[in-house]
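Hi support team,

I submitted a single chain yesterday and got back a structure, but I'm not sure I'm reading the token output correctly. Could someone confirm the output below corresponds to the sequence I sent? I've pasted both exactly as they appear in my results page.

Thanks,
R.
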Amino acid sequence: MNRIALIGIMVEDQSAAGRINEVLHQYGKYIIGRMGIPHAKENLSVISVVLDAPEDIISAVSGKLGMIRGVSTKTIYSRAGEIRGNSYQ
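Hi R., thanks for writing in. Yes, this is the structure output for that exact sequence:
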């Protein structure tokens, strides 16, 4: 069963951009949308990626991104399935 999730990505090493894009491209069929916000003053970029995917795929994407040097991730999941009566356990 698919879940909707948001992966927040903090990029503190701009040279990681190519590796980040490779991972996102690899899982592109699950991505609903993405938004990147550069903060040049702090040499930081913030990227939000929304996915509609099985939990193991979401975890894989977040884990692969988080293993890139200079990149931190945090994932949050929608509770929409619980509201519709679906169980994600």
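A quick pointer for reading it: The CA atoms of residues 36 and 47 lie 4 Å apart. Let us know if anything else looks off.

Best,
Support desk
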